[in-house]
Amino acid sequence: MSMQAKTRRPRLTRIWRAAALPLVLLAAWEASTRLGLVDPHQLPPLEDVVARGWSESRNGDFLTALAASLGRDLAGFAIGAAIGTASGLLLGFYRPAQSILGPTLRVHRQIALFAWVPLIAVWFGAGEPGKIAFIALAAFQPSLINTWRGVQEIPDRFHELAAVLTFSRLDFLRFVGIPAILPAIFTGLKAALIYAWQATIGAELFMTIAPGIGGVMMQGRQLFQMDLVLLTILLLGLVGAGFNTLAGLSEALLLRRRTS
Amino acid sequence: MARAPLPVSLSLQRLVLQNSAALAADQHAALLLSGFHPAPTGDALIGDALVNRQVQLEAWDDSGARGHEAEGDQAAIGSLDRINAAISDWVGRNVGRVLLGLSFPLILFITWQASSLYGWLPDQILPAPSLVWQTLQERIADGSLWDDASISLLRVLRGFTLGATAGLALGGLMAASRKLHDYLNPLFLAVSQVPTLGWVPLLILLVGIDEGLKNILVALSVFIPVTLGTYQGIRDVPHGYREVGQVLTFGRAQMLRIIILPAAVPAIFTGLREGLSNGWQTLVAVELLASTEGLGYQMSYGRQLFQLELVIATMLVIGLIGFVFDFLLGRIENHLQRWKVAA
After folding, report:
1. Which of A48, A133, A170, B211 has the least CB density, counted as fewest CB within 10 Å?
2. Which ipTM was obtained for this model?
3. Entry pTM
4. Which of B201, B285, B323 sits opposite A114 (nearest CB)?
């Protein structure tokens, strides 16, 4: 069997299979609301949710909330990931730093992220600085751990090769070290992006109400507007998927040299 | 494109060889450490009736060593000294490492103590270490710490059991059947894109804020990494291993028990560990948000009363429990992987 036949033919079947289960669920949803099997407060009809989505995106409320959440998310991500990656490099390449800070950072990682919320709320306030500090903390951990591990896992042969070529420390970093750990850094940044998004929602739910998707969710819950709540979940998922796609694309772009 | 089949006999041979070598090395290490000179065991690896300590040591150092000329007791004693030296060297190095590792927390602690001593920060922002310690002791003494911790632990274990069972099942099913994978995976991926906390408002509307909410959320946050780990672990079992099973005419159950599950253990455990840590994380979050008992609630209570010593004391307990969880799963994983030959 040739490779082409194997991949081309099932593409259609695969799309059909991917869509099958969601379609069944949507049909079940539609049928149960039509037949009055469920309380419309608990599960509003599909067309109501779609209509609500249309009107909310027309009047711009969703867009404002989304922009506020994303701005917060990216600010925290930038701070946390920058500090995390830099610390990971320091710990990996500078042995004393690893001996002194390593164990503490390993234990720190075990404290559940959300356990920091009360402390951060008191130290930084529950407003914008506190939220961004919390998001930064969430992005810090995965970028630190992955970068650090990436440095530790540079193969010995790379060091040997650099020694044979009498590279200086700086040359080693430039030609061997950084390219070798780039994939690990990316894994860290990708994880940091996802953690930061989790933390953004957490911060918006836990700290003071502020414009953002979390605020819209809480409003929907308090007013018992299920359509609004369902829409925000859809939005959260779309943003998460968007981040993943973006991270994957930029990784492929920056690492294309490796495959050629 | 058809993959050229591995020479089965070769991988089988390698597997058997590795295991017997490791077994022999283990035996000798154990005997040596107990200071006992074994009578010849008829071990295929040594295969010499005149085994002396030198040969054992060589066998321990390099399990590939076969027959060796005896070189007398002197060399053996020298080797034992070498081992002793290596052990004390190791202890020396690690004491240094532990001390260095403790230096940073110590500096933090001294700064903290100094800050409270000289009043750099008000108590509402950073309470004195002694106050945190006292709170911790009081809460242990009156049993309230144990009450909260046991409530939280029970919740996380319930959610973990639910989520891990579902995750193992779904991951296993998707790895077993390409067709099922194609049907289920897209929906699974879509669900996993939504941050766990994003489900909170929806679930509160559907099931209220009682135990059901905590169980579902913890289970969901465990479910996703466990499914991924199980699926990848089973899918990535090397082809050669399966062929060994086919050669030995294993049935489905035997194949699963003897070949696939042991080989997939590392990936599955990565999933389980991440799952448990996620679940613990999520539980603390939900307890902060909607609960009237448990460790997370204690923290939000402390925050409302501006009793930061209560918050910090609870954080320490939460960190400790997370640490113990990770440690325990690591031990179980090592135990399940004891068959593995060190690379």
Report:
1. A170
2. 0.81
3. 0.76
4. B285
